[in-house]
Design goal:
Radius of gyration: 19 Å
Number of helices: 1
Number of strands: 12
Keywords: Signal
Strand content: over 45%
Strand order of the largest sheet: 1-2-3-4-5-6-7-8-9-10-11-12
Signal peptide: 1-25
Order of helices and strands: HEEEEEEEEEEEE
Helix content: under 10%
CATH topology of the domain at 2-20 and 108-278: Porin
Structural class: mainly beta
Shape: globular
CATH class of the domain at 2-20 and 108-278: Mainly Beta
Largest sheet: 12 strands, antiparallel, barrel
Distance between the termini: 39 Å
């Protein structure tokens, strides 16, 4: 754990040192992309277009070897004030051996497509805090956890809040999350429904004109059924986040989280490695065009 954190911050420090010091920051914050696993309330300016790649790694289950890597390519547009649309496609790589209740597999596949809609209701420049409603819909042919083939559909609803605590220096954000999921697998025709609720908090500070450092704390509870039926498990993730404005048009976000505490239903374990992973990491690169 300590070695992983040291490697993360070493990589961040090297990246920061390599960024030209002449890159300047705008007044205030643009929270659209500064967080790793969370979202801010900013949605961009009308007419803005962006290309983004997002790579997410999930490592560690209750036994054996578990590695899952997702790479998503996205296009974002802002057709109207306060309204953003994003479409994306995802490919996944799974390397699973000896994990309880998950078949061994090593494969690379196209996973599916997604549509992300965000509407900002409150602008923190004109209100006590920013407030945005987001809905991300996805349809997949590969299960993101097991890598099994089938038909998977889901939506992630998010209420995002943020507020600048110290002008142009410190900002905090809160996300409230609800994720219903449907899945029907090819093998055996097995169907599953699940739902997850969560709350996440982040804080970021500006350490250089073009660099923000901070952390994220996320808590999730998973249930069977899309209506929060039988409780399955819970987990708390914590970890650092770094944001670097590479140039006027390009940016980079790095985030790493570890499961600090968790518990599957009916167990006294200190971690839930049945419903969640031990480590999660994310790298996001974006450019305006």
């Amino acid at each position: 754990m300590r070695g992983g954190a040291l490697r993360f911050w070493t990589a961040v420090a090297c990246g920061i040192a390599a960024v030209p010091a002449c890159v300047s920051a705008e007044e205030g914050f643009d929270t659209e992309h500064i967080f790793g696993f969370m979202i801010g309330t900013d949605v961009g300016s009308p007419g803005e277009r962006e290309f983004q790649t997002q790579t997410t790694g999930r490592l560690g289950k209750g036994g054996g070897t578990y590695r899952a890597l997702e790479h998503e390519v996205e296009i974002e547009v802002v057709p109207l004030p306060n309204f953003r649309i994003e479409v994306g496609g995802t490919a996944t790589l799974h390397d699973i051996t000896g994990v309880p209740d998950i078949d061994d597999r090593r494969q690379f596949n196209f996973q599916g497509a997604s549509l992300d809609l965000r509407y900002r209701l409150l602008d923190r420049e004109r209100a006590p805090f920013g407030f945005t409603v987001a809905a991300e819909l996805h349809g997949d042919r590969i299960d993101e956890t097991s890598g099994a083939k089938g038909r998977m559909y889901g939506t992630e609803f998010t209420l995002a809040f943020d507020r600048e605590l110290v002008p142009n220096f410190a900002i905090a954000a809160l996300n409230l999350i609800y994720q219903p999921e449907w899945a029907r697998f090819e093998v055996g025709g097995l169907s599953e429904k699940s739902s997850t609720i969560g709350a996440a908090f982040a804080g970021m500070v500006r350490v250089r004109p073009n660099v923000l450092l901070g952390g994220e704390l996320r808590y999730f509870r998973q249930y069977e059924g899309i209506g929060l039926g039988e409780f399955s498990g819970q987990a708390l993730f914590v970890g650092p986040t770094a944001y670097v404005q590479l140039s006027e048009r390009s940016r980079l976000t790095l985030s790493w989280s570890m499961q600090a505490w968790g518990r599957p239903a009916g167990s006294g374990a200190n971690l839930d490695l049945v419903n969640f992973e031990r480590h999660q990491a994310r790298l996001v690169f974006g450019v305006n065009f």
